[in-house]
Amino acid sequence: MPIGWDPEARQLHLQNGTISYVIRVLENGALGHLHFGPRLSGERSYAHVGLGPFLGFTNRLDDPVALELPIAGVGDFRVPGLAVEGPDGSAILDLTYVSHRIVPGKPPLASLPCTYVEADAEADTVEIVLADAPTGTEVRLAYTVFRDLPIVTRSMVVRNGGGAALDLTCAMSASLDLADSDWWLVQLSGTWARERHVVERPLVPGRQSIGSVRGASGYQHNPFIALRRASTTEDQGEVYGFSLVYSGNFLAEADVDAQGTTRVRMGIAPEGFRWRLDPGAELELPEAVLAYSDAGLGGLSDAYHVLYRERLARGTWRDRPRPVLINNWEGTYYDFDEPKLLEMAAASWDLGIELFVLDDGWFGQRDDDTTSLGDWVVDRRKLPDGIDGLATKVEALGLRFGLWIEPEMVSERSRLFADHPDWAIGVPGRARTEARQQFVLDMSRPDVVDHLFGVLSDVLGTAAVSYVKWDMNRNITEPYSLGLPPDRQGEFFHRYILGVYDLYRRLTAAFPEVLFESCASGGGRFDPGMLAFAPQTWTSDDTDAVERLRIQWGTSLVYPLSSMGAHVAAVPNHQTGRLAPLATRAAVAFFGVFGYELDPTRFSAEERHEVIDQIAFYKAHRELFQRGRFVRLRSPFEGDGDRTAWMVVSPDRRQAVVGVYQALNRPVPGPDRVRLRGLDPSAAYKVALWPSTGDSIERANALVRGGDDLMAVGLFLAAERHAAARWGDFWARLFVLEA
Ligand code: DGJ
Is the CB of 359 under 6 A from ligand 1? Predict the structure, then answer.
């Protein structure tokens, strides 16, 4: 029984083959938390876990009682999970257990993206109802345990069952109390062009948090944290993961109290959030995805990768091989016309590329970023036959056609802004802050979403568009909606994201064959909420191969390779000026959804041959790169970070590709070895280098070797010093393993 209810102990036990999550209704009716971690026997009571009978907080005010939904102001002085202001202005709640219901499968959320099951046998769910009599506040908590993954999801609905309005000011999707604080906090932080770098620190007393108040999840911090033991590595040791299926403002926090316990909470950022619940109204909060692994960070990533690739992403493109694309952005920026694009498309087809993507600059009069966002009408100066004409010509060359849009934005110099200045977010009577010379449309307004659905449907419905890149290039300032009364402005940010989801839902439903890729100046909104609509995301505007090692490594902590757009760009690189060899650029970009971002007509004959081989190699291993198990071997964040290594393994462990990368060359290299993981120890693997280098690394490794040998001893990266002196910087080696 994956979810058991023990009426005597008043205990709910969610479990599968590897984990248990145990909740108890405490003596005072509150929901207590007993355990989340290794699987426990389902037969027993765990009421002894904790302090014994709990009747509420006493004068011993620092009692470290573990709770599922902590409330402030009733004796628990740690951070709360829920705060509701009642009609008397107080925020005191006594939420007590009313009932629960266990159902097979996983009911979907009504308004928000979430993970799902395809058959009831894949998961079980318990919905627990709590209520506070004086205010009429009702809370429905839903927990789902997946049968085959060490994952529990949690979501919450807050309803006003009373007779007077309530104001919700804090509603955390996850709240988990842990018995100690001997943890390292792992977060994915950065900025534009260096997104999702791994940052780690030991927990200290007090609150340590990350989050966003920008209106998007943001590249400053991803809506994910992990807690690992100091000794946890990639392949062993305990780690908890917390991931939020949400694309807007969020908070992820660990609060260590005086007794050394830790409370982790995650949800919509309380800062600036205030949601009015009229009598009978309810609000659904985003889903938090909690994972536990005793197989290190790699075990945690395995679980998130499977869940997010197979049961968060959806639609036609979830399981289909993703096309090798070329995007014209870095090749032309705004400076193109139809002959130029067709010349690039023809050259792309010769190389084996499958999809030609036209980026920014095709609409209005957009020759730079000062104008035209919102005017989704083709610029006939550049494209006299329209998008439909261009798409038809690209298809005639043998490629599919894709198009860039940035629906949520408006330029001050645009017809849309002239017609609807009130649709741009801003406070009446105050200046609007411009960023990238554009304003943000008020997506909290249904009329704005309706308008965008209409104009974008016209574009997608009248041309052979197979792919859409949905960009979003600035964050929200002067948050305020003319569509909301003054006392509801605290709802604005969440309503904005609901509007974005609504537009995504309608467009993906209307155009189910179109592959959507989300983007936000690169990876500024790379989150599970977006992945529920667009199965791939442009990982970063930084296409430099060396920088990408860190970005793709960090991103892979949570997100599968099938979700990461990764392109080969021209050199000198446009973000760093670096001159990484073409082979290295491809060897990094292979580990993702592969493509090019340059002008292919500028390749030399030699480069053209190399690119033809790269594309053929990727296509031959596409299934492996897009759906294989990704294993991180050597971190660019550890030591001097000079050597990075990772690999993909097929589900049957018969095939693998290992990537080894070196940033700067050092004289007289030592006898370095990289041990592999995830192979079949009893299989014999033929190891080959791709492309063949003919050097000492190839000679040392091109052998038939046992899986046990490759995992225990590893690949050899040593080289004789004169040979190594010729390597130069920024090299990569790909090892192809066939059982
Ligand atoms: C930011 C994106 O990340 C780029 O790839 C490109 O699409 C530009 N915007 C276009 O303005």
Answer: yes
